[in-house]
3-deoxy-D-manno-octulosonate 8-phosphate phosphatase KdsC
Amino acid sequence: MIELLVFDVDGCLTDGGIMYGNGDQEEFKVFNVKDGFGIVAWMKLGKKSAIITGRGSRVVERRAKELGISYLYQNVKNKKAVLEEILRAENLSFENVAAIGDDLNDLALLRSVALSFAPNDALPLVKREVSVVLSRNGGHGAVREMIDYVVASENLSEAFVNPWL
């Protein structure tokens, strides 16, 4: 049973674009509201979520806090090792994890989990390695599509919808 969803940021939760303002600390990213709503709905099932990303950003920290994401790790070089820490803390195994990634730094983590996903615009090598290639691009509902897939495959559709009725 999937208990933890793991998300990459750039190219998955966003389209991979980074916009800088005039100030040294001004960075902008666009997140998809439907992705965020799906994450919140997933956690209403009593499940966990994690962001493990190779870059650091106050914008990502703000988004994770806003959504109530259980774990946030930024500036990560070895994503699989960080996931192992989370699994120990939660007393879970790789079989309890679904993850989404789009580039080379996601491969080791994606290869280790029960269900792996890539946005439609992911690196071709990553798309060949994952369980499911999504129809949506990163930042344009790919994470929500992933969540909907996991919810359906775990027979949680009714429980996923009920809190909103």
Summary: The longest strand covers residues 48-52. The chain has eight helices and eight strands. The chain has a mean pLDDT of 96.
